[in-house]
Amino acid sequence: MAESFQIRGFRVWPGHLDRAAQEALVADIRAVAAAAPFVAPVTPGGKPMTVRMTGAGRLGWVTDRHGYRYEARHPSGVAWPPIPLSVLALWRDLTGLNREPDCCLVNFYGPQARMGLHQDKDEGDFSWPILSVSLGDDALFRIGGVDRAEGTQSVWLRSGDVVVFGGPARLAWHGVDRLRPGSSTLLPEGGRFNLTCRVVVP
Ligand SMILES: O=C(O)CCC(=O)C(=O)O
Ligand SMILES: [Mn+2]
Question: Does pLDDT of 55 surpass 80?
Answer without folding.
Answer: yes
